[in-house]
Amino acid sequence: MYRASGRIMQQLRHRMPAPEGRLAVSLAAPALKTFTLRQQQRHEQVRWTATSTVSSKQVTTPPPRHDWNRAVSEAERIVGYPTSFLSLRWLLSDEIANVALHLRKLVGSAHPLMKTAKHLLYNGKNTMQAWGLIVLLVSKAAGHAPSVPDVEQDKSAGVLHSQRALAEVTEMIRISHLVHNSVVNLQSSTEAGQDAATYDDMSFGNKIGLLTGDYLLGHSSAELANLRNQEVVELISSAVRDFSESEFIGERDEQNNPLPYKPGTFQRPSLSVAVDFNEHDVMTPMPIAQVLGNPEQEWECRNILNAGSLLGKSCQASLKLAGQSEELQRHAYRFGKHLALAWQACLDAEPFQCPTLPLDTTFSLVSAPVLFHLEHDPSLYAQLEQGKQSVDNIDYDKIHKAVLAGPALAKTKELQRKHTAAALAVLQHFPATDARQALENIILAMQDL
Amino acid sequence: MACMSTSGRVVCGSRRQQTHKFLCQLFGRQSGYAAAVSSSGSGSGSQLLPIANTQQYQLVRRFHGLSFNLGKDYLDLLQNAHSCSQNLKYSQCSKTNLRQHSSVHTQQPAGPVREIQIDPYIILDDELKYFYDDVRDLLQSGTSQPELDTIASYYFDGQGKALRPMVTMLMAKAINYHLNNESHQLVHKQRQVALFSEMVHSASLVHDDVIDQSDFRRGKPSVNALWNHKKVTMAGDYILSIASIMIARLRSDDVTIVLSQILTDLVQGEFMQLGSRETENERFAHYLTKTYRKTASLIANALKATAVIAQADDNVAEVAFQYGRNIGLAFQLVDDMLDFVSSTEQMGKPTAADLKLGLATAPVLFACEKYPELNPMVMRRFSEPGDVERAFELVHKSHGLEQTRFLAKKHCNEAIRLAQELTESPYQKGLQVVADLVINRLK
């Protein structure tokens, strides 16, 4: 059964880059659905009814879509753990219990930490809690060298215990970055530092946010150390470095929200090859200066630092733990990177999917649609310039309208397809397994979000 | 580290002076800042005079930017630990191991030898001279963003005391000597641990600055006053990540494990600082655990890591760890004490800072015994108007400061005892001197 569906996927992949790729995906979907359905029927009688109603509804409504939640819960079953790592032991520690207690004091304040906490706990399709899951799936898809002793394996799930620990570290580092990023700039020169009434809340929120992030970072380095693999420690530490570096790229408003460069700041020919890290020296930072001003490559670099680096390097490190070849490790890195970029493009496109911007919604000014539109029409920069002090001063509706009128959304979709196809192509290098299948399903579901 | 010209002297301790130069610092001055006096060692260096009638001297020494008030503790120590005979013994054991100290100070002011004392900063000149340059180079090599580099390197300006790297290198070399195992490669690796200790310390300072919102540190504007707090937070993470990469490159699983303990302890210490305990007994234990995690763990584990690199056995590693733990605890106790007695100019940061942050440190906790009215203030973290001033006054009226000092002294003595378990060497002696510096520091 696996093989049959694998063949469908293979046909699919060959057609992916072509314009009809999307159509092919939709056509193949029902077949895939029935396949997974039968799987579930065999394994979990209980869940059968629920899944079947969902899927039959979808089959009757053309065009059929891949279901994100289904793809994720299927994948979770494959690697043996029920859910995201948020529920694991670190959440039960004294320190975090303490944080929860302190967070209650912040409820109702405007501190961004509350928003981050909500975002992390809300298990919807808009959050990619699945990072650890991706690492585990890649681990399982690659398998491990025969030299790995039995005691280090989690036989039922098909991954190593060390890989599971690494997946947890990946999530901890990512959350720590999100939490540290919700620190508010309280410098006396900023607006946020002026209002005495909210100052105490903000300062307290900063304290809790900073310590929580540090807690996660500290524990992730202890977990990493226990893996007893210094190449892995090096690689993952460099991903932490990339995260912090990403917050320094380009111009920023008072709260460190990124602003695009003024069009024409850089006069560089676009590079024929994509820029990436030096494979031989993790200490070397991303050479981002080479691509500034080129919307697509600048966007890629920003988001590799911001997301692709951790996911890619974690996938790579996981294969290191399993004693896999350097070549397969490189593929794992590329897979993680492209998946993260495809996901980011998908998130960037989302606010532009409806004809008018939903109330209280904003978007990043260095998101792909905005950067693409700036290239198409540099006069938009006049609007963005108003956000120099605070991005809140910008008329988002106006920009939204302008972007929708131009080619930027289509280009963003194209960008997403490019990275989806790249991720699927890299997966070819892994043997066909249920884990690889699950990764493909996740990617296809993401494409349809 | 280039500023060590102050009063380093060469004194040759014995006949073996031709093959062996022993660097040490001589000092001894009347009333304050008189010039250091010494004599050249040629032929008569063995007549090292211990301090006579010291009681009447108020010895103040300027030591690499540190001031030390040499009180009675110091004299006890001299008599116990630094007798002349030990000096000879040292010369004998060094015969097998020709040591050459590259930075020989040849300046010889006239005057009688009053006292001989090792200056750890001078015997570690080789390791510490370009210490901050190396940290800055490392930080610069990891990023393409100049602003990140600037913030991350801000506290590596060479103005700090460099206590952690200094103790780390002393222990490293004392252990190498003890194991009779010295190679440049080994010392180089141990030096990376010293770099790590200082980098982690700075990263925690950077994050503390954002948490505490203080405007000054080490006599200059703190990072949070100068840069966006979000960027400052990221710069702290950056320093940590670069330090971790550096340590991972030593390719030693055990070293990484020992050093990662520092990070978890640091954060747990910070979390402990958020809360306090009801009863007095619990409160003091809470304070001591917090102090261990926030300050002593860094030194203890860094020292242990140098032992691990030198492949010392568990006993030696434990000596290193316990020495560091005691020094760390004493250091923090003295720090908490100085918060009540030093002036703002000396510390480079405002005094009674802990009270203002709502923290009850050892002097306050001791004072609670005599003045129970402090208890409610501790519980409300000195938040009501007048609390800070009242607590400050009561601490001075009680014996809180003396008791804190006594406790610190106990830890220093324990550290000295531990150091004596290692084979004698200038570094081993240096470790004992450090205990003395810690208790007698003025800033």
Beta-strand content estimate of chain A: under 5%
The CATH topology label of the largest domain in chain A is Farnesyl Diphosphate Synthase
Overall spatial form of chain A: globular
Q: Name the overall outline of chain B.
A: globular
Q: Profile the largest sheet of chain B.
A: 3 strands, antiparallel
Rg value of chain B: 22 Å
Number of helices of chain A: 17
How would you name the CATH homologous superfamily of the largest domain in chain B? Farnesyl Diphosphate Synthase
The DSSP helix count of chain B reads 20
Low-confidence residue ranges of chain A = 1-64
Element string of chain B (H = helix, E = strand): EEEEHHEHHHHHHEEHHHHHHHHHHHH
Biggest pleated sheet of chain A: 2 strands, antiparallel
Instruction: List the helices and strands of chain A in order.
Output: HHHHHHHEEHHHEEHHHHHHH
Helix content of chain B: 55-70%
Strand order of the largest sheet of chain A: 1-2
Residue-averaged pLDDT of chain A, rounded?
Answer: 80
Describe this structure in words.
Chain A: This is Decaprenyl-diphosphate synthase subunit 2. The complex is a heterodimer of chains A (449) and B (443). Chain A is mainly alpha-helical and 449 residues long. Chain A has helices at 2-15, 21-43, 48-60, 68-79, 94-106, 112-121, 131-142, 161-181, 196-226, 230-246, 295-321, 326-349, 368-376, 381-385, 396-405, 408-427, 434-447, and strands at 153-154, 159-160, 251-252, 258-259. Chain A has 3 domains: 2-79, no CATH class; 85-122 and 144-228, no CATH class; 250-430, Farnesyl Diphosphate Synthase. Chain A is built from 17 helices and 4 strands. Chain A has a two-stranded antiparallel ribbon. Chain A has a two-stranded antiparallel ribbon with strand order 3-4. Chain A starts with a helix and ends with a helix. Chain B folds into 2 domains: 8-123, no CATH class; 126-440, Farnesyl Diphosphate Synthase, CATH 1.10.600. Chain B has helices spanning 72-81, 84-93, 120-123, 125-128, 131-141, 146-153, 163-178, 184-212, 223-226, 229-248, 253-274, 280-309, 314-341, 344-347, 353-356, 362-370, 374-379, 387-397, 400-419, 426-440, and strands at 8-10, 23-26, 59-63, 66-70, 116-117, 216-217, 220-221. In chain B, the strands form 3 sheets. In chain B, strands 1-2-5 form a 3-stranded antiparallel beta sheet. In chain B, strands 3-4 form a two-stranded antiparallel ribbon. The chains are: A mainly alpha (449), B mainly alpha (443). Chains A and B meet through helix 5, helix 8, helix 9 and helix 10 of A and helix 8, helix 10 and helix 11 of B.
